[in-house]
Amino acid sequence: MLSHVTTTLCVLVSLATAHFSIEYPEMRGDSFATGASQYIYPCANVNQTANTNRTIWPLTGGSLNLDLHHPWTYVFINLGLGTDYPSLNISLTPEFLNATGNGTLCLPEVKIPASVNVKDGQNATLQVVTLGETGSALYNCADITFSSKGATLDGDKCKTNGVTVAAIKQQVNGSSTTSSPSSTESGANPSSTKASAAVSGREANSMLVAGAVAGMGAVVVSWLL
Ligand SMILES: *[C@@H]1O[C@H](CO)[C@@H](O)[C@H](O)[C@H]1NC(C)=O
Ligand SMILES: *[C@@H]1O[C@H](CO)[C@@H](O)[C@H](O)[C@H]1NC(C)=O
Ligand SMILES: *[C@@H]1O[C@H](CO)[C@@H](O)[C@H](O)[C@H]1NC(C)=O
Ligand SMILES: *[C@@H]1O[C@H](CO)[C@@H](O)[C@H](O)[C@H]1NC(C)=O
Ligand SMILES: *[C@@H]1O[C@H](CO)[C@@H](O)[C@H](O)[C@H]1NC(C)=O
Ligand SMILES: *[C@@H]1O[C@H](CO)[C@@H](O)[C@H](O)[C@H]1NC(C)=O
Ligand SMILES: *[C@@H]1O[C@H](CO)[C@@H](O)[C@H](O)[C@H]1NC(C)=O
């Protein structure tokens, strides 16, 4: 009986802590609602409805604020151009992120690759994927409209708290090229780098993750195109 209760508690705790949310731009809808599940690709089974709100995003890329509850997780960000359930086939994280900790991770500017032609007024969907140790992924989406009037979040609205992040760089034949993490965490280890080569090999862009401001680790992500 006691062990049953304990097991149930553990399951509840892990359910509660394993999920994440997009704080900005506005999530498509509640991925904790009945009928939704963050385990369901591509957007947690959250449907686009008349109530779906679109956040204005700058043409060159915008801010992304995540609420994370994992001890650590890999974070991928994908983009789909279009209005209704677009194909989420543009990677915004050729070097995906390893986020460690429990709290908020705000990326001030997630850049749109120069090769992607984004028009003023273009609708799109952002998909955020987190992937943990077991290999099971969680999904959430946010619908946006690109606009020349869009702006990135001000620094005071885009704070990283309790989370440190490092970009997992593509490896050159076994030698690590992980960029400096914004924390004391060291970079890629050999086991992780296989995954990075497999997943991030599609673009040669270089991403710089730097930061570590005043302990909490403000994170600046910029792309060197
Ligand atoms: C979204 O639509 C599908 C198919 O109609 C449905 O099964 C699912 O429950 C809906 N999701 C939510 C959160 O209502
Ligand atoms: C969209 O925004 C309105 C106004 O803030 C809010 O009432 C509504 O719940 C939002 N829609 C969704 C799907 O969250
Ligand atoms: C993404 O999918 C859309 C629709 O299927 C397609 O038109 C577009 O070429 C694809 N883009 C990339 C980068 O694969
Ligand atoms: C994350 O932080 C929140 C708020 O401080 C806390 O309630 C929760 O238990 C923490 N979760 C983990 C996995 O540390
Ligand atoms: C963008 O999406 C909104 C609904 O969210 C729609 O009303 C509008 O027509 C779409 N714009 C374009 C250019 O497709
Ligand atoms: C990778 O390194 C191994 C051992 O140093 C070498 O034999 C191999 O040729 C290298 N492969 C490439 C593609 O450089
Ligand atoms: C990601 O972060 C976790 C926790 O800090 C660490 O154990 C893991 O090795 C990191 N992965 C990579 C590829 O750096």
From TrEMBL:
Topology versus the membrane: Lipid-anchor; GPI-anchor
Keywords tagged on the record: Cell membrane, Glycoprotein, GPI-anchor, Lipoprotein, Membrane, Signal
Signal peptide from the UniProt entry: 1-18
Region annotation (Disordered) ranges: 172-197
Major site of localization recorded for this protein: membrane
Subcellular location field: Cell membrane
Entry-linked InterPro entries: BIM1-like, BIM1-like_dom
A Pfam family of this chain: BIM1-like_dom
Domain Copper acquisition factor BIM1-like: 18-160
Compositionally biased spans, kind Low complexity: 173-193
One term under GO cellular component: plasma membrane
Protein name per the record: Copper acquisition factor BIM1-like domain-containing protein
